[in-house]
Amino acid sequence: MNTQSTALPEGCMSPRHWAHYQKAEAMMPWATQTNAKRYDNDFIATRPPFIERAEGCRMWDMDGREYIDYRAALGPIVLGYRYPEVEEAVRRQLDKGTLFSMASPVEAVAAEAILQTLGWADKIRFMKTGADVCACCLRLARTYTGRDHLATSGYHGYQDWFALSFGWPNPGVPVALNDYIHKLTYGNLESVEQVFKAHGEQLAAVIVSPVEWSQDPRPDYLKLLRERCDQYGVVLIFDEVLTGFRLAKGGAPEYFGVKPDLSAYAKGIANGYPLSAYAGKAEVMDTLNRSIITTTYAGETLSLAAAIAVMQVFEREPVHAHLFRLGKRLREGFDAAFAEFDFPARTIGVDVAVDIAFSGTDAEKLKNRHDLFEKLYAKGIFANNEWFITYAHRESDIDDTVAKLRESLQELSNHG
Ligand SMILES: Cc1ncc(COP(=O)(O)O)c(C=O)c1O
Questions:
Q1: Among 156, 247, 355, residue to substitute to test ligand 1 (most atoms within 8 Å of Cβ)
Q2: Which tens digits make up the pLDDT trace of 197-253?
Q3: What kind of architecture, by CATH, is found in domain 84-316?
Q4: Is the pLDDT confidence value at 5 over 60?
Q5: How much is the CA Rg of the chain, to the nearest whole Å?
Q6: For the domain bounded by 15-80+318-415, which CATH number is listed?
Protein backbone atom coordinates (compact mmCIF):
# COMPACT_ATOMS: atom_id res chain seq x y z
CA MET A 1 0.00 0.00 0.00
CA ASN A 2 1.35 3.41 -0.86
CA THR A 3 1.09 5.59 2.26
CA GLN A 4 3.89 7.93 1.25
CA SER A 5 2.74 11.49 1.86
CA THR A 6 2.90 13.95 -0.99
CA ALA A 7 2.68 17.72 -0.61
CA LEU A 8 -0.56 19.33 0.52
CA PRO A 9 -2.33 20.74 -2.57
CA GLU A 10 -2.30 24.53 -2.73
CA GLY A 11 -5.12 26.06 -0.69
CA CYS A 12 -6.04 22.77 1.04
CA MET A 13 -6.81 23.71 4.61
CA SER A 14 -6.43 20.34 6.22
CA PRO A 15 -3.34 18.15 6.53
CA ARG A 16 -5.53 15.56 8.31
CA HIS A 17 -7.96 15.32 5.36
CA TRP A 18 -5.11 15.12 2.91
CA ALA A 19 -3.37 12.31 4.83
CA HIS A 20 -6.63 10.36 5.09
CA TYR A 21 -7.36 10.89 1.41
CA GLN A 22 -3.98 9.49 0.42
CA LYS A 23 -4.44 6.43 2.64
CA ALA A 24 -7.97 5.81 1.34
CA GLU A 25 -7.02 6.29 -2.28
CA ALA A 26 -4.15 3.79 -2.00
CA MET A 27 -6.67 1.07 -1.02
CA MET A 28 -9.84 2.18 -2.86
CA PRO A 29 -9.82 3.67 -6.34
CA TRP A 30 -11.51 7.15 -6.01
CA ALA A 31 -11.16 6.95 -2.18
CA THR A 32 -14.95 6.71 -2.07
CA GLN A 33 -17.84 4.81 -3.66
CA THR A 34 -19.73 7.65 -5.36
CA ASN A 35 -18.49 9.57 -8.39
CA ALA A 36 -19.91 12.87 -7.16
CA LYS A 37 -18.03 12.55 -3.84
CA ARG A 38 -14.61 12.17 -5.44
CA TYR A 39 -12.08 14.68 -4.14
CA ASP A 40 -10.19 14.61 -7.42
CA ASN A 41 -13.33 15.39 -9.41
CA ASP A 42 -13.92 19.09 -9.94
CA PHE A 43 -11.19 19.80 -7.33
CA ILE A 44 -11.75 22.77 -5.06
CA ALA A 45 -9.12 22.99 -2.35
CA THR A 46 -11.42 24.28 0.41
CA ARG A 47 -14.01 21.52 -0.07
CA PRO A 48 -13.51 18.86 2.62
CA PRO A 49 -13.23 15.35 1.15
CA PHE A 50 -14.58 13.66 4.28
CA ILE A 51 -17.56 14.38 6.52
CA GLU A 52 -17.65 12.73 9.92
CA ARG A 53 -21.16 13.48 11.20
CA ALA A 54 -24.30 15.49 10.48
CA GLU A 55 -27.40 16.68 12.32
CA GLY A 56 -30.33 18.77 11.07
CA CYS A 57 -29.03 20.96 8.24
CA ARG A 58 -25.45 20.96 9.52
CA MET A 59 -22.48 18.68 9.10
CA TRP A 60 -18.93 18.49 10.43
CA ASP A 61 -15.75 17.45 8.66
CA MET A 62 -12.76 15.52 10.08
CA ASP A 63 -11.31 18.72 11.56
CA GLY A 64 -14.59 19.51 13.34
CA ARG A 65 -15.36 22.37 10.93
CA GLU A 66 -19.09 23.06 10.72
CA TYR A 67 -21.04 23.59 7.47
CA ILE A 68 -24.62 24.52 6.67
CA ASP A 69 -25.30 21.77 4.15
CA TYR A 70 -27.34 22.09 0.97
CA ARG A 71 -26.06 18.92 -0.67
CA ALA A 72 -28.29 16.69 1.44
CA ALA A 73 -26.07 13.63 0.92
CA LEU A 74 -26.68 14.05 -2.87
CA GLY A 75 -30.44 14.35 -2.36
CA PRO A 76 -31.71 11.69 0.07
CA ILE A 77 -32.02 13.96 3.11
CA VAL A 78 -35.40 15.72 2.91
CA LEU A 79 -36.28 16.05 6.60
CA GLY A 80 -32.76 16.90 7.79
CA TYR A 81 -30.01 14.62 9.06
CA ARG A 82 -30.95 12.30 11.94
CA TYR A 83 -34.59 13.39 12.08
CA PRO A 84 -35.58 12.12 15.57
CA GLU A 85 -38.80 10.32 14.60
CA VAL A 86 -37.06 8.44 11.79
CA GLU A 87 -34.08 7.51 13.96
CA GLU A 88 -36.46 6.24 16.66
CA ALA A 89 -38.35 4.06 14.14
CA VAL A 90 -35.03 2.55 12.99
CA ARG A 91 -33.95 1.88 16.60
CA ARG A 92 -37.27 0.13 17.34
CA GLN A 93 -36.89 -2.07 14.26
CA LEU A 94 -33.25 -2.80 15.12
CA ASP A 95 -34.47 -4.47 18.31
CA LYS A 96 -36.50 -6.91 16.17
CA GLY A 97 -33.91 -7.57 13.45
CA THR A 98 -32.72 -6.40 10.06
CA LEU A 99 -33.39 -9.28 7.68
CA PHE A 100 -35.20 -12.59 8.17
CA SER A 101 -35.57 -16.01 6.56
CA MET A 102 -38.99 -15.09 5.17
CA ALA A 103 -40.63 -11.76 4.31
CA SER A 104 -41.09 -9.24 7.12
CA PRO A 105 -44.58 -7.79 7.72
CA VAL A 106 -42.89 -4.36 7.53
CA GLU A 107 -42.64 -4.74 3.72
CA ALA A 108 -46.40 -4.50 3.20
CA VAL A 109 -46.79 -1.78 5.86
CA ALA A 110 -44.22 0.33 4.01
CA ALA A 111 -45.87 -0.44 0.65
CA GLU A 112 -49.23 0.79 1.92
CA ALA A 113 -47.79 3.96 3.49
CA ILE A 114 -45.83 4.90 0.36
CA LEU A 115 -48.66 4.14 -2.10
CA GLN A 116 -50.96 6.28 0.01
CA THR A 117 -48.44 9.16 0.02
CA LEU A 118 -47.88 8.91 -3.73
CA GLY A 119 -51.59 8.80 -4.46
CA TRP A 120 -51.28 7.81 -8.14
CA ALA A 121 -49.68 4.32 -8.23
CA ASP A 122 -51.45 0.96 -7.73
CA LYS A 123 -48.53 -1.29 -6.83
CA ILE A 124 -44.95 -1.05 -5.62
CA ARG A 125 -41.81 -3.14 -5.02
CA PHE A 126 -38.55 -2.32 -3.26
CA MET A 127 -34.86 -2.25 -4.13
CA LYS A 128 -31.79 -0.50 -2.77
CA THR A 129 -30.47 2.09 -5.23
CA GLY A 130 -31.69 4.47 -7.88
CA ALA A 131 -29.83 2.56 -10.59
CA ASP A 132 -31.59 -0.65 -9.46
CA VAL A 133 -35.08 0.70 -9.81
CA CYS A 134 -34.49 2.40 -13.16
CA ALA A 135 -33.26 -0.97 -14.48
CA CYS A 136 -36.30 -2.72 -12.94
CA CYS A 137 -38.68 -0.30 -14.66
CA LEU A 138 -37.00 -0.92 -18.00
CA ARG A 139 -37.23 -4.71 -17.51
CA LEU A 140 -40.94 -4.45 -16.70
CA ALA A 141 -41.61 -2.23 -19.70
CA ARG A 142 -39.88 -4.73 -21.98
CA THR A 143 -41.81 -7.64 -20.52
CA TYR A 144 -45.08 -5.73 -20.79
CA THR A 145 -44.64 -4.56 -24.39
CA GLY A 146 -42.55 -7.42 -25.80
CA ARG A 147 -40.24 -4.77 -27.34
CA ASP A 148 -36.57 -3.98 -26.67
CA HIS A 149 -35.79 -0.35 -27.52
CA LEU A 150 -35.72 2.63 -25.17
CA ALA A 151 -35.69 6.40 -25.55
CA THR A 152 -34.21 8.50 -22.79
CA SER A 153 -32.92 11.84 -21.60
CA GLY A 154 -30.85 12.40 -18.46
CA TYR A 155 -28.96 10.27 -15.97
CA HIS A 156 -30.45 7.04 -14.64
CA GLY A 157 -27.55 5.35 -12.88
CA TYR A 158 -24.41 3.43 -13.78
CA GLN A 159 -25.95 0.28 -15.27
CA ASP A 160 -25.21 -0.70 -18.88
CA TRP A 161 -28.31 0.66 -20.65
CA PHE A 162 -28.18 4.03 -19.00
CA ALA A 163 -24.40 4.32 -18.97
CA LEU A 164 -24.42 4.40 -22.75
CA SER A 165 -27.31 6.78 -23.06
CA PHE A 166 -25.76 9.30 -20.62
CA GLY A 167 -22.62 9.58 -22.69
CA TRP A 168 -19.94 8.98 -20.05
CA PRO A 169 -16.81 7.12 -21.10
CA ASN A 170 -17.93 3.52 -20.80
CA PRO A 171 -15.26 0.94 -21.36
CA GLY A 172 -16.77 -2.40 -20.35
CA VAL A 173 -20.26 -1.66 -21.70
CA PRO A 174 -21.06 -3.54 -24.95
CA VAL A 175 -21.42 -0.91 -27.68
CA ALA A 176 -23.99 -3.17 -29.40
CA LEU A 177 -26.52 -1.92 -26.86
CA ASN A 178 -26.41 1.45 -28.63
CA ASP A 179 -28.60 -0.05 -31.36
CA TYR A 180 -31.47 -0.12 -28.88
CA ILE A 181 -31.01 3.32 -27.30
CA HIS A 182 -32.47 6.55 -28.71
CA LYS A 183 -31.49 9.83 -27.15
CA LEU A 184 -33.93 12.58 -26.28
CA THR A 185 -33.00 16.05 -25.08
CA TYR A 186 -34.85 17.36 -22.03
CA GLY A 187 -37.31 20.03 -23.07
CA ASN A 188 -36.70 19.52 -26.78
CA LEU A 189 -40.06 18.65 -28.35
CA GLU A 190 -38.52 18.14 -31.76
CA SER A 191 -36.27 15.36 -30.40
CA VAL A 192 -39.41 13.59 -29.12
CA GLU A 193 -41.14 13.79 -32.51
CA GLN A 194 -38.04 12.57 -34.34
CA VAL A 195 -37.45 9.56 -32.08
CA PHE A 196 -41.10 8.48 -32.16
CA LYS A 197 -41.36 8.93 -35.89
CA ALA A 198 -38.30 6.78 -36.50
CA HIS A 199 -38.65 4.20 -33.71
CA GLY A 200 -42.08 4.56 -32.04
CA GLU A 201 -43.17 1.02 -32.96
CA GLN A 202 -39.97 -0.51 -31.53
CA LEU A 203 -39.92 1.36 -28.22
CA ALA A 204 -40.66 -0.53 -25.00
CA ALA A 205 -40.10 2.52 -22.83
CA VAL A 206 -39.31 6.18 -22.55
CA ILE A 207 -37.43 6.97 -19.35
CA VAL A 208 -36.85 10.59 -18.34
CA SER A 209 -36.31 12.63 -15.21
CA PRO A 210 -39.31 14.97 -14.90
CA VAL A 211 -36.96 17.81 -13.91
CA GLU A 212 -33.37 18.48 -14.89
CA TRP A 213 -32.38 20.81 -12.05
CA SER A 214 -30.00 22.85 -14.19
CA GLN A 215 -32.91 23.87 -16.45
CA ASP A 216 -36.30 25.39 -15.94
CA PRO A 217 -39.00 22.68 -15.78
CA ARG A 218 -40.76 21.72 -19.02
CA PRO A 219 -44.22 20.29 -18.39
CA ASP A 220 -44.90 20.53 -22.14
CA TYR A 221 -42.08 17.99 -22.74
CA LEU A 222 -43.66 15.57 -20.25
CA LYS A 223 -47.12 16.07 -21.74
CA LEU A 224 -45.88 15.39 -25.26
CA LEU A 225 -44.10 12.24 -24.08
CA ARG A 226 -47.34 11.07 -22.44
CA GLU A 227 -49.26 11.66 -25.66
CA ARG A 228 -46.76 9.89 -27.91
CA CYS A 229 -46.36 6.95 -25.49
CA ASP A 230 -50.14 6.47 -25.53
CA GLN A 231 -50.22 6.72 -29.31
CA TYR A 232 -47.46 4.11 -29.83
CA GLY A 233 -48.20 1.80 -26.87
CA VAL A 234 -44.94 2.70 -25.08
CA VAL A 235 -44.45 2.56 -21.29
CA LEU A 236 -43.69 6.02 -19.89
CA ILE A 237 -41.25 5.84 -16.98
CA PHE A 238 -40.44 8.81 -14.77
CA ASP A 239 -37.09 8.58 -13.06
CA GLU A 240 -38.10 10.25 -9.80
CA VAL A 241 -34.95 9.18 -7.98
CA LEU A 242 -34.22 12.82 -7.20
CA THR A 243 -37.59 14.52 -7.71
CA GLY A 244 -39.73 11.97 -5.82
CA PHE A 245 -40.87 13.11 -2.35
CA ARG A 246 -39.11 16.44 -2.95
CA LEU A 247 -41.19 18.24 -5.61
CA ALA A 248 -44.35 17.16 -3.79
CA LYS A 249 -45.56 14.23 -1.68
CA GLY A 250 -46.89 12.62 -4.85
CA GLY A 251 -43.84 13.68 -6.91
CA ALA A 252 -44.07 14.71 -10.57
CA PRO A 253 -47.66 13.51 -11.23
CA GLU A 254 -48.86 15.82 -8.47
CA TYR A 255 -46.54 18.70 -9.42
CA PHE A 256 -46.99 18.59 -13.20
CA GLY A 257 -50.31 16.77 -13.54
CA VAL A 258 -48.76 14.21 -15.92
CA LYS A 259 -49.00 10.53 -14.91
CA PRO A 260 -46.40 7.99 -16.01
CA ASP A 261 -47.02 4.23 -16.21
CA LEU A 262 -44.11 3.48 -13.89
CA SER A 263 -41.84 5.54 -11.66
CA ALA A 264 -38.49 4.91 -10.00
CA TYR A 265 -37.96 6.36 -6.49
CA ALA A 266 -34.88 6.34 -4.27
CA LYS A 267 -33.54 9.54 -2.73
CA GLY A 268 -36.06 11.12 -0.41
CA ILE A 269 -37.99 7.95 0.36
CA ALA A 270 -36.26 7.07 3.67
CA ASN A 271 -34.30 10.20 4.68
CA GLY A 272 -30.90 8.70 3.90
CA TYR A 273 -31.52 5.03 4.66
CA PRO A 274 -30.81 2.81 1.64
CA LEU A 275 -34.15 2.12 0.06
CA SER A 276 -35.52 2.53 -3.45
CA ALA A 277 -38.85 1.59 -5.00
CA TYR A 278 -40.52 1.16 -8.36
CA ALA A 279 -44.22 1.75 -8.55
CA GLY A 280 -46.96 2.19 -11.09
CA LYS A 281 -50.02 0.92 -12.82
CA ALA A 282 -51.18 -2.56 -11.76
CA GLU A 283 -51.20 -3.96 -15.30
CA VAL A 284 -47.52 -3.12 -15.78
CA MET A 285 -46.39 -4.03 -12.24
CA ASP A 286 -48.20 -7.37 -12.56
CA THR A 287 -45.75 -8.47 -15.27
CA LEU A 288 -43.58 -9.32 -12.23
CA ASN A 289 -45.74 -12.44 -12.00
CA ARG A 290 -44.16 -13.73 -15.21
CA SER A 291 -40.57 -12.51 -14.81
CA ILE A 292 -38.04 -12.62 -11.99
CA ILE A 293 -36.63 -9.51 -10.38
CA THR A 294 -35.12 -10.51 -7.07
CA THR A 295 -32.35 -9.54 -4.66
CA THR A 296 -31.55 -10.48 -1.06
CA TYR A 297 -31.43 -7.12 0.67
CA ALA A 298 -34.43 -5.35 -0.88
CA GLY A 299 -36.67 -6.27 2.06
CA GLU A 300 -34.17 -5.00 4.66
CA THR A 301 -36.32 -3.76 7.50
CA LEU A 302 -34.45 -0.77 8.97
CA SER A 303 -34.83 1.27 5.77
CA LEU A 304 -38.46 0.23 5.41
CA ALA A 305 -39.13 1.33 9.00
CA ALA A 306 -37.42 4.64 8.19
CA ALA A 307 -39.62 5.07 5.10
CA ILE A 308 -42.81 4.45 7.09
CA ALA A 309 -41.77 7.15 9.57
CA VAL A 310 -40.92 9.55 6.71
CA MET A 311 -44.38 9.03 5.16
CA GLN A 312 -45.99 9.77 8.53
CA VAL A 313 -44.06 13.03 8.79
CA PHE A 314 -45.09 13.98 5.22
CA GLU A 315 -48.70 13.24 6.15
CA ARG A 316 -48.64 15.37 9.29
CA GLU A 317 -46.24 18.27 8.66
CA PRO A 318 -46.09 20.96 5.95
CA VAL A 319 -42.74 19.64 4.71
CA HIS A 320 -43.05 20.53 1.03
CA ALA A 321 -44.48 24.00 1.66
CA HIS A 322 -41.43 24.61 3.87
CA LEU A 323 -39.00 23.43 1.18
CA PHE A 324 -40.57 25.75 -1.40
CA ARG A 325 -40.83 28.74 0.97
CA LEU A 326 -37.21 28.58 2.11
CA GLY A 327 -35.98 27.74 -1.38
CA LYS A 328 -37.66 30.89 -2.67
CA ARG A 329 -36.07 32.93 0.12
CA LEU A 330 -32.61 31.57 -0.75
CA ARG A 331 -33.18 32.14 -4.43
CA GLU A 332 -34.33 35.74 -4.03
CA GLY A 333 -31.40 36.47 -1.73
CA PHE A 334 -28.92 34.98 -4.20
CA ASP A 335 -30.35 36.77 -7.24
CA ALA A 336 -30.37 40.12 -5.40
CA ALA A 337 -26.72 39.59 -4.39
CA PHE A 338 -25.65 38.61 -7.93
CA ALA A 339 -27.32 41.78 -9.25
CA GLU A 340 -25.82 44.01 -6.53
CA PHE A 341 -22.27 42.83 -7.25
CA ASP A 342 -22.81 42.58 -11.00
CA PHE A 343 -21.73 38.94 -10.83
CA PRO A 344 -22.53 37.00 -14.03
CA ALA A 345 -24.86 34.39 -12.55
CA ARG A 346 -28.53 33.76 -11.73
CA THR A 347 -30.55 31.04 -10.12
CA ILE A 348 -32.40 28.56 -12.27
CA GLY A 349 -34.71 25.56 -11.79
CA VAL A 350 -37.22 24.73 -9.06
CA ASP A 351 -37.21 26.49 -5.68
CA VAL A 352 -36.73 23.27 -3.65
CA ALA A 353 -33.31 22.74 -5.29
CA VAL A 354 -32.18 25.71 -7.38
CA ASP A 355 -29.00 25.68 -9.42
CA ILE A 356 -26.75 28.63 -10.15
CA ALA A 357 -26.42 29.29 -13.88
CA PHE A 358 -23.18 31.14 -14.64
CA SER A 359 -22.88 33.18 -17.82
CA GLY A 360 -19.98 34.05 -20.11
CA THR A 361 -17.55 31.86 -22.00
CA ASP A 362 -17.04 28.27 -20.81
CA ALA A 363 -13.72 29.26 -19.25
CA GLU A 364 -15.31 32.24 -17.44
CA LYS A 365 -18.16 30.10 -16.16
CA LEU A 366 -15.75 27.51 -14.79
CA LYS A 367 -13.56 30.12 -13.14
CA ASN A 368 -16.43 32.03 -11.55
CA ARG A 369 -18.01 28.83 -10.26
CA HIS A 370 -14.70 27.61 -8.84
CA ASP A 371 -13.86 30.95 -7.17
CA LEU A 372 -17.33 31.34 -5.66
CA PHE A 373 -17.53 27.83 -4.22
CA GLU A 374 -13.97 28.06 -2.92
CA LYS A 375 -15.06 31.08 -0.85
CA LEU A 376 -18.34 29.48 0.26
CA TYR A 377 -16.74 26.24 1.50
CA ALA A 378 -14.15 28.27 3.42
CA LYS A 379 -17.02 30.18 5.08
CA GLY A 380 -18.85 26.98 6.10
CA ILE A 381 -21.48 26.84 3.36
CA PHE A 382 -21.71 23.52 1.54
CA ALA A 383 -23.46 22.89 -1.78
CA ASN A 384 -22.49 21.58 -5.18
CA ASN A 385 -24.85 22.17 -8.09
CA GLU A 386 -28.34 21.92 -6.61
CA TRP A 387 -29.08 23.79 -3.39
CA PHE A 388 -31.33 21.22 -1.67
CA ILE A 389 -33.50 22.68 1.06
CA THR A 390 -34.46 20.32 3.89
CA TYR A 391 -37.17 20.52 6.54
CA ALA A 392 -34.39 21.21 9.05
CA HIS A 393 -33.26 24.48 7.44
CA ARG A 394 -34.57 27.60 9.19
CA GLU A 395 -35.00 31.15 7.88
CA SER A 396 -31.90 32.10 9.89
CA ASP A 397 -29.83 29.44 8.05
CA ILE A 398 -30.97 30.83 4.71
CA ASP A 399 -30.21 34.40 5.76
CA ASP A 400 -26.82 33.36 7.08
CA THR A 401 -26.11 31.63 3.76
CA VAL A 402 -27.15 34.67 1.72
CA ALA A 403 -24.92 36.85 3.93
CA LYS A 404 -21.96 34.50 3.28
CA LEU A 405 -22.66 34.61 -0.44
CA ARG A 406 -22.64 38.44 -0.34
CA GLU A 407 -19.33 38.41 1.59
CA SER A 408 -17.89 36.03 -1.02
CA LEU A 409 -19.03 38.23 -3.91
CA GLN A 410 -17.65 41.31 -2.14
CA GLU A 411 -14.25 39.63 -1.74
CA LEU A 412 -14.26 38.47 -5.35
CA SER A 413 -15.13 41.94 -6.61
CA ASN A 414 -12.36 43.53 -4.47
CA HIS A 415 -9.98 41.04 -5.98
CA GLY A 416 -11.02 41.52 -9.58
C1 LIG B 1 -32.16 11.10 -11.61
C2 LIG B 1 -31.28 10.00 -11.08
N3 LIG B 1 -31.50 8.73 -11.48
C4 LIG B 1 -30.77 7.71 -11.03
C5 LIG B 1 -29.72 7.92 -10.18
C6 LIG B 1 -28.91 6.76 -9.68
O7 LIG B 1 -29.19 6.53 -8.32
P8 LIG B 1 -28.15 5.72 -7.42
O9 LIG B 1 -26.93 6.56 -7.30
O10 LIG B 1 -28.86 5.53 -6.12
O11 LIG B 1 -27.90 4.41 -8.11
C12 LIG B 1 -29.42 9.22 -9.75
C13 LIG B 1 -28.30 9.48 -8.85
O14 LIG B 1 -27.84 10.58 -8.65
C15 LIG B 1 -30.23 10.29 -10.21
O16 LIG B 1 -30.00 11.55 -9.84
A1: 156
A2: 999 999 999 999 999 999 999 999 999 999 999 999 999 999 999 999 999 999 999
A3: 3-Layer(aba) Sandwich (3.40)
A4: no
A5: 22
A6: 3.90.1150.10
